[in-house]
């Protein structure tokens, strides 16, 4: 008799999950969350206000990159994972610099060390050093941290670790945001 009650309760629970869309969708969102562009965090107008000293590019302000797709990377010469991902960033830059603005900000680094690193490796991706505070929304907690932003400032990709940036997925993402 107890087995029958257990089976009836299990069948009832499964029936509720399957037949009631609100319950099914709630459980699906809880156990299988999917990040959507509609839920993406947006970088606000004030978050873009960062004075940037150019190392191998003219000095500028990040706000000059608003309304454009941006590949924004925070890194340091002292950071092994940052150094490891540089070749893939350079390859991505070489093929996509006409479609996306690249802004790499060296953090906790001396300008001379950054210049030496770029020259020794023949890297041409635009590199800057922040000259004003960075908003909490963008300030990295770990290095490297990379954001891919669309024209409206939505964060479409955020990676807080070494990543191979010259992949089909990243190229498709860029193709989608430049349309």
UniProtKB/TrEMBL annotation:
Location in the cell: Cell envelope
GO annotation (BP), single: cytochrome complex assembly
Gene Ontology molecular function, alphabetical: oxidoreductase activity
Residues annotated as transmembrane: 6-27
Keywords, ordered alphabetically: Cytochrome c-type biogenesis, Membrane, Redox-active center, Transmembrane, Transmembrane helix
Domain Thioredoxin: 41-179
GO cellular-component term (any): cell envelope
Claim: Zinc is one of the keywords in the record: no
InterPro entries: Redoxin (IPR013740), Thioredoxin-like_sf (IPR036249), Thioredoxin_CS (IPR017937), Thioredoxin_domain (IPR013766), Thioredoxin_ResA/DsbE_sf (IPR050553)
Main subcellular location: other
Pfam families from the UniProt entry: Redoxin (PF08534)
Gene3D superfamilies: Glutaredoxin
The UniProt record lists the keyword Transcription: no
PANTHER family, alphabetized: PROTEIN DIPZ, THIOL:DISULFIDE INTERCHANGE PROTEIN DSBE
This protein's name: Alkyl hydroperoxide reductase
The species this protein was found in: Chryseobacterium piperi
